[in-house]
Design brief:
Blueprint: E1 3-10, H1 12-16, H2 21-34, E2 38-44, E3 51-56, H3 60-72, E4 76-83, H4 89-94
Length: about 100
């Protein structure tokens, strides 16, 4: 399955109710699993983002729907990165046109 990295920033609503964040993280993981995804890891981080999550999901469309669903709750703003394992990089390079 494709791998995705989710970057999350707390909204004003999310920070006001931060004590409920552990339950929200658990609920988000359950939703991801219900949609066919698998959470590899979730981390609170310091810097530009407040949390990151790494997961596998069946498709870009399902991943996008998941990110939209989380964002619609109002506690986080999401950014999603599609990740390519190192073993896939040579095949990607082979697809580059000769310039």
């Amino acid at each position: 399955m494709p791998t995705y990295i989710g970057l999350f920033k707390l909204t004003e609503q999310g920070i006001k109710d931060i004590v409920k964040a552990p339950a929200r993280i658990e609920d988000a993981a359950k939703l991801y699993q219900k949609m066919g995804g698998k959470v590899i890891g979730t981390y609170m981080v310091m810097g530009e983002y407040d949390y990151i999550a790494i997961g596998e999901c069946p498709s870009d469309e399902i991943q996008a729907a998941y990110a939209l669903a989380l964002g619609s709750l109002g506690n986080v703003k999401t950014t999603t990165l599609k990740a390519f394992p190192a073993g896939e990089i040579p095949a990607i390079f082979k697809k580059m046109p000769k310039l």
